[in-house]
Every structure is written in C-alpha cells, then in structure tokens.
Design goal:
There is one protein chain. The protein folds into two domains: about 30 residues; about 200 residues, no CATH class. By secondary structure, the protein is of the alpha+beta class. It has eight helices and nine strands. Helices cover about 35% and strands about 20% of the residues. Strands 1, 2, 3, 4, 5, 6, 7, 8 and 9 form a nine-stranded mixed sheet that branches. It is globular and about 85 Å long.
C-alpha cells in the first residue's frame, strides 16, 4: 500500500472516530425526556401564573398541600377513553415552607367534562389538604373523584374561589389548551407512580413516591426550575 493510501485511510478513521466521539458527547449532554418534562412543567406554571386575571387564584394556591403538573399532553390524549400523560407532584415540606422533591406520576383515563381541544393540553391539579395528599401519594393507583372529592377549579381573581363546592373539594383540577386556561372535571381519571421516570431521575425504579414526598429525598438537579417556580408563586402554605 502506498504512503498516500495509508494517509487517506488514517484520515478516514480519524474522521470516523471524531464523529463517534461527538455523537457520544451529544447523547451524554442531552437531557432525558423525564428531565425535560420537569423543565416543561416549570414553564407551564410560569405561563399560567403569569396572567393574573386568568390564573389559579393565589389564595387557593397558598392553601394547597400539593401541586401536580402534567405538561404537553399530545392531541387525542385528553379524549374520553384515550387520555394519557406524565407529570410530577410536589407537596409542602413539613412546616409548610418550601416544596418536596417531585414525584413522577402517570395520569390515565376518565372524562374531563369541559373539553377545549388543540394539539397540546397542560393539566394542573391542586391537592388542598393533607388527607387528600396522603391518599394520592400513598396509593399505588389513585382514582380521582372516587377516593377523594374533586372539582373544577375557579380561575382568576374572583370570590368564587371561596364557593362551597371549592371549599369542600379535596382536589381542584385545571387544563390549558391553545392558551385557554379553565377549570375542568377529571372524574374517573387515575393517577399512579411513574416507575420509569423515578428510575431515571432518582436512580432506583423500585423507589415509590411515598418515599420521595415523605422521606425527605433530595431533589434531582433537573427539578431545580420546577421547584423554583413553585416557590416563586407560593413558597409558604397559608393556614
């Protein structure tokens, strides 16, 4: 083989090796879909709470024990018989100041009553008391409206946040699609832990959300923006 041929071969392998290294670095630096979903959940909170006249009423958010956010459900996911989404639930820390590490969840099934439509839908749930929070977090499969009373949450700066229906409900539910944010019913929907996301974010897919929420588990770095958003809009629970 000529020297030129040898040099051409070496150049080829050098380019190939460089490409493999670059691809490996890109894969290593790309966030997992679960980490990206946490960032998306933070953006959902920022966008919803950024429109004060059409956001979750501040007094309700301040009273909530936990908040559950499911960002970007795709088209068809919120139609009867076909809904499926993945998100995160975080609860107040003991003493009511700050929020726990987020527990990954899956939301499935049920009828949402008021359907907005659109290519993507964000879903938000407020769990209003400790009893409702324990039922949700400690259950392997939680049924909304079955194991805890749920109601469509009021929107904006309105005294309707203090209506009897809202005050009695353990959970308040909302959805947003095409920029329209409204309270919705989620009766019949189920919520369970997302083992795959737990394994990816916490390194142990056998861990349960009960351990994450009530076990003083350290939050993963990917949760920084999500927890920062929760603390920005309600760092302390009102009594």
């Amino acid at each position: 083989m000529s020297i030129r041929a040898i040099l051409d071969t070496m150049k080829h392998f050098t380019v190939l090796f460089s490409g493999l290294v670059l691809a490996t670095v890109c894969v290593a630096q790309s966030p997992s879909p679960h980490a990206q979903r946490l960032t998306d959940a933070a953006a959902v909170l920022d966008e919803i709470m950024g429109v004060k006249d059409k956001s979750i009423p501040q007094e309700l958010l301040d009273k909530a024990q936990c908040a559950l956010v499911v960002p970007g459900l795709k088209s068809g996911a919120f139609i009867l018989g076909g809904r499926f989404g993945r998100g995160f639930v975080s609860c107040r820390k003991e003493g009511g100041v700050g929020w726990t590490a987020p527990g990954p969840v899956r939301v499935e099934g049920g009828s949402i009553g008021f359907q907005i439509g659109g290519s993507e839908t964000d879903f938000v749930m407020l769990i209003m008391n400790a009893k409702g929070a324990e039922r949700l977090v400690k259950s392997s499969k939680f049924s909304v409206g079955g194991e805890a009373s749920a109601a469509a949450g009021p929107v904006g700066r309105t005294s309707s946040a203090e209506t009897d229906a809202t005050m009695r409900a353990e959970m308040l539910t909302y959805s947003r699609s095409r920029g329209v944010f409204a309270g919705v019913s989620l009766k019949g929907g189920t919520i369970r832990g997302d083992d795959e996301a737990i394994g990816d974010l916490y390194g142990n897919k056998k861990m349960k959300n009960e351990q994450i929420i009530y076990g003083n588990t350290a939050a993963p770095a990917a949760a920084e923006k999500f927890l920062a958003a929760l603390n920005k809009y309600s760092s302390r629970q009102s009594k």
